Amino acid sequence: MTEAPREPRGPAPAPQGPHRLPALVGAVVIATACLAGLVLQVVQFTGHIRVFPWAAVLALAFAAATFAFGFWILRRIRPVRAPDPVPSAVAAVWGMTAATGAGIVANGGLSAVWSKLLGLDVTGAWDAALTAPVNEELLKLAGIVLVAVVFPRALRDPVDGFVLGALVGLGFEVSENLVYAFQAVTRAGATDPALAVATTTVVRVGLTGLGSHWAMSAVAGTAVGLLAAARWRPERRRAVLAALLVLLAMGQHWLLDAPLFGEGIAAVLVKVAAVFASTMAVYVLVRRSYRRRMRRALAAEGEAVGMRRSAAVALVTRHGRLRAAQDVARPEQPAVLDRQERMLAAAEDRAALDGT
Question: Cβ–Cβ contacts within 10 Å for residue 181, how many?
Fold first, then answer.
């Protein structure tokens, strides 16, 4: 008599007991810091909004469109399936509020230090390159770590760190675009506020967008994923690699802000290309590793429930899952999709253990 196929097991249960305390503390820190950052930015923007209301509406509309598109595409680049929406949103909100608000204060303080140590001339040329890579990257990195603490199942692999880090950077970029848009209106003497806002947005999204904050934070987030995959107790090689990734993120930021290669669009494009290429190199490596482990995990899960290896491994792609669901009668498709989700959750648990 043939044994009936078993149902795939679901995801591992959430941590209980004392493991909840760090998550609770992390949630409180995130909520408090985000609220403080939001209040600081509202205070900063209120004057511009009151004086230039239509320009403010346009800037906010551009910001909303940038955020919506970025949030969609950055979640889509995670292999196999998109990350959960809640930790994704928390990551983006941290970058948009807490990291940006604290960055405004920290950058001002560090700029004053550089002025005293290096003089006004040097600081005027190198201020952004000396200040932002330190303050802003560490503030964004803190948010990625907090997301990993509060949502341990959402960030337990380098590829998770890459995606959630990119979302933190996206939030930061959206808020920074607003700052630059309002500053552009003032610098232009308010002669054409709408044009100033539109020009700034086109430059920051269309020209430098591929090498902006999302890319730097994605690299730093990969470092957090490396540590999380080792249960925060990495061996020396992994710890050194994580540190190098954080330094790479800071180096990318330094390169983008440094007054190198002269001025003009060509210089900017060279720096943006360097940042984007190095970020994509990191992504290709972690994506390849993750997909390889997920194929092994899906093969093992398929074997456990009596599924052919080829059919189980095909679930690693969205197209493969859709095709498998379309191969059955329409009334059976919801059950097939549910079974796929449970297999993916179980395979991700197995792949996470394999990643250590």
Answer: 26
Q: What is the DSSP letter of 308?
A: -
Q: Is residue 137 within 8 Å of residue 168, measured between CB atoms?
A: no
Q: Which domain holds residue 349?
A: 296-354
Query: Distances in Å between the alpha carbon of 158 and those of 67, 138, 229, 295?
Result: 23, 18, 7, 17
| Within a domain: 86 | yes
Q: What is the pLDDT of residues 106-118, one digit of tens each?
A: 988 888 888 888 8
Radius of gyration of the chain (CA): 23
With respect to residue 114, please indicate whether it lies within any of the assigned structural domains.
yes
- Token duo for residue 207: 């020209």
pLDDT digits (tens, 9 = 90+) for 47-81: 888 888 888 899 999 999 999 999 999 999 999 99
Extract the tokens encoding 129: 């390159």
N residues, the chain: 356
233 lies in some domain:
yes
Task: Report d(CA 164, CA 225) in Å as an integer.
Answer: 10
Q: Among residues 44, 42, 168, 35, which one has the least CA distance to residue 108?
A: 44
Q: What pTM was computed for the model?
A: 0.91
User: Which residues make Cβ contacts (< 8 Å) with residue 193, sequence separation at least 6?
Assistant: 52, 54, 55, 185
Q: How many helices and strands, by DSSP H and E, does the chain display? A: 13, 0
Based on the domain organization, do 189 and 314 belong to the same domain? no
* Distance of alpha carbon 227 from alpha carbon 225, whole angstroms: 5
Q: Tell me if residue 153 falls in helix, strand or coil.
A: coil
